[in-house]
């Protein structure tokens, strides 16, 4: 597979993507638009939603003819993965319980009787690898005026699926660049790996802030979810216990069964067909499931948690350093050994790519003020249509682009932010054009993060 350092373009992965076995069936991931199958429910799977391109209704995502991109940073989540080990155990317990206790099954649930849970844990699925490979192609294409001349500087948080996502992305980028320029990319430096864990400072994965990890703010997300789960699963619990008498299905079992719909979708290399678990629940029930998952992120890592946005400060300060070409000024989660060294934190590059997790990305978006002025999400009833929707913000292989534009008629360079191709409204800075603010205004707007926010409340 892919090896950092020396690169042979068009290696194995290309065969995987274009291979006959996959081409024969319908491939649901596409380079431009991401996942485009079963839209009625596939966009209601919270963080298990496969990446799809969002409509940009606020401002056009296109790069205007009057502008040139001078800088681009992508912050990406890893691609689709198997359930985490803990989630997998919970799912298996639910399945085992049903099979042990069920007296009978309805027609729609009959398949559960002989169902065998065999998914792996934690790592990317083949579909997830393809998502990331396609993401690298897309990044090259969007920024090709820069990408033809240079390669992105790459960092990844240390979990294997995140590193693997970075290498798939890089391979996609390289293959597309080689194809378009005719010049094989011969070397590519290995990524900077940032260790995960409470003893480490890591801007791509939270862990070092004690009150947030283990203290008074550590259960806000799961508490909000528990409140809402008791309500939205109520009718489903009753129905399933009629369909499968004896099984004694609980609210938690419902959540586990629902998750098997996305999980068994993304183990198909094509992302198709949908497994039978998807048929046991209605579109509306999946919308509520998505809301349930959204609550976990909002109160766990986002604006609903007093220390959620603080977990994103370190990355924001790194971003400011890269945008302005000045050294990192941060006393939160940055690793000064890494960020003080030009080999591991070079300034003056035009392309950067960082690989991370959904939770930390939610914190980064929050530290960037992207949700300022939105009302808190209700824990009692679903608030569909709220700007904070996890399926849109941090699906598998989701990505934020921060781009700097040099535009005719603008003295200063402009900055704007796109999440999954949607131009985000920047709160607290003066929009010039294209959904962008001047670089000066943009940095000014981020003063909460520049001043360290409320990181001091971590202890
Ligand atoms: C379930 O799958 C595992 C792994 O593939 C296999 O070893 C086992 O025999 C299967 N069990 C049943 C009941 O089919
Ligand atoms: C900072 O990064 C270096 C290099 O990876 C590592 O050895 C060190 O343990 C890290 N320190 C912290 C506090 O994260
Ligand atoms: C059903 O499950 C609950 C726990 O979720 C347990 O307290 C209860 O005893 C179970 N009822 C039966 C009939 O097994
Ligand atoms: C890690 O972060 C803490 C808190 O900001 C800081 O005091 C410490 O110097 C940092 N360590 C490194 C290696 O950056
Ligand atoms: C770094 O940030 C702190 C807090 O905002 C500020 O007081 C200090 O002047 C900054 N240092 C530099 C060198 O910009």
From TrEMBL:
Which residues belong to the signal peptide in this entry? 1-19
Q: Name one GO cellular component term.
A: extracellular region
Q: What is its EC number?
A: 3.1.3.8
Localization in the cell = Secreted
Pfam families in alphabetical order: His_Phos_2 (PF00328)
Question: Known catalysed reaction(s)?
Answer: 1D-myo-inositol 1,2-bisphosphate + H2O = 1D-myo-inositol 2-phosphate + phosphate; 1D-myo-inositol 1,2,4,5,6-pentakisphosphate + H2O = 1D-myo-inositol 1,2,5,6-tetrakisphosphate + phosphate; 1D-myo-inositol 1,2,6-trisphosphate + H2O = 1D-myo-inositol 1,2-bisphosphate + phosphate; 1D-myo-inositol 1,2,5,6-tetrakisphosphate + H2O = 1D-myo-inositol 1,2,6-trisphosphate + phosphate
Q: Which SUPFAM superfamilies does this chain map to?
A: Phosphoglycerate mutase-like
For this UniProt record, the keywords arranged alphabetically read as follows:
Disulfide bond, Glycoprotein, Hydrolase, Secreted, Signal
Question: Which InterPro entries is this protein grouped with?
Answer: Acid_Pase_AS (IPR033379), His_Pase_clade-2 (IPR000560), His_PPase_superfam (IPR029033), Histidine_acid_Pase_euk (IPR016274)
Disulfide topology? 28-37, 67-407, 209-458, 261-278, 429-437
Which residues does UniProt mark as catalytic? 78, 358
CDD domains, per this entry? Answer: HP_HAP_like
Gene Ontology MF terms: acid phosphatase activity; inositol hexakisphosphate 3-phosphatase activity
Quote the subunit structure annotation. Answer: Monomer.
Similarity remark: Belongs to the histidine acid phosphatase family.
List the PANTHER family: 3-PHYTASE B, MULTIPLE INOSITOL POLYPHOSPHATE PHOSPHATASE-RELATED
What is this protein identified as?
Phytase A
Native source organism of the sequence: Dactylellina haptotyla (strain CBS 200.50)
Q: What is the lineage of its organism?
A: Eukaryota, Fungi, Dikarya, Ascomycota, Pezizomycotina
């Amino acid at each position: 597979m892919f090896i950092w350092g020396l690169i042979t373009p068009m290696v194995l992965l290309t065969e995987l993507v274009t291979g006959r076995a996959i081409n024969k069936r319908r491939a649901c991931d596409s380079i431009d638009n991401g996942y485009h199958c079963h839209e009625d429910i596939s966009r209601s799977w919270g963080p298990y939603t496969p990446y799809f391109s969002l409509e940009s209704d606020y401002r056009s995502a296109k790069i205007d003819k009057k502008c040139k991109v001078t800088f681009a940073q992508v912050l990406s989540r890893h691609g689709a993965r198997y359930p985490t080990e803990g989630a997998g155990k919970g799912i298996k317990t639910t399945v085992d319980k049903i099979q042990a206790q069920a007296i009978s099954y309805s027609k729609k649930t009959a398949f559960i009787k002989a169902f065998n849970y065999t998914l792996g844990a934690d790592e990317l699925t083949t579909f997830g690898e393809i998502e990331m490979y396609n993401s690298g192609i897309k990044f090259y294409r969007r920024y090709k005026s820069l990408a033809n001349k240079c390669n992105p500087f790459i960092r990844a948080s240390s979990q294997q699926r995140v590193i693997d996502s970075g290498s798939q992305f890089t391979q996609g980028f390289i293959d597309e660049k080689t194809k378009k320029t005719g010049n094989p990319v011969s070397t590519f430096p290995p990524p900077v790996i940032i260790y995960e864990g409470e003893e480490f400072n890591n801007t791509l994965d939270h862990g070092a802030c004690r009150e947030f990890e283990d203290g008074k703010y550590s259960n806000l997300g799961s508490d909000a979810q528990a409140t809402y789960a008791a309500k939205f699963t109520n009718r489903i619990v009753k129905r399933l216990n009629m369909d499968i008498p004896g099984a004694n299905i609980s609210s938690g079992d419902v959540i586990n069964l629902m998750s098997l719909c996305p999980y068994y979708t993304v183990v198909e290399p094509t992302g198709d067909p949908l497994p039978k678990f998807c048929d046991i629940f209605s579109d509306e029930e999946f919308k509520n499931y998505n809301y349930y998952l959204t609550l976990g992120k909002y109160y766990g890592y986002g604006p609903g948690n007093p220390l959620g946005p603080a977990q994103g400060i370190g990355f924001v300060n790194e971003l400011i350093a890269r945008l302005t070409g000045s050294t990192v000024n941060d006393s939160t989660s940055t690793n000064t050994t890494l960020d003080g060294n030009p080999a591991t934190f070079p300034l003056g590059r035009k392309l950067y790519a960082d690989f991370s997790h959904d939770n930390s990305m939610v914190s980064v978006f929050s530290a960037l003020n992207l949700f300022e002025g939105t009302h808190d999400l209700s824990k009692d009833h679903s608030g569909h249509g709220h700007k904070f929707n996890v399926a849109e913000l941090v699906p598998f292989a989701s990505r934020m682009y921060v781009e700097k534009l040099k535009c005719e008629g603008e003295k200063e360079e402009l900055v704007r932010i796109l999440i999954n191709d949607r131009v985000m409204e920047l709160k607290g800075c003066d929009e010039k054009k294209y959904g962008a603010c001047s670089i000066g205004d943009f940095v000014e707007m981020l003063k909460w993060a520049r001043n360290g926010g409320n990181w001091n409340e971590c202890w």
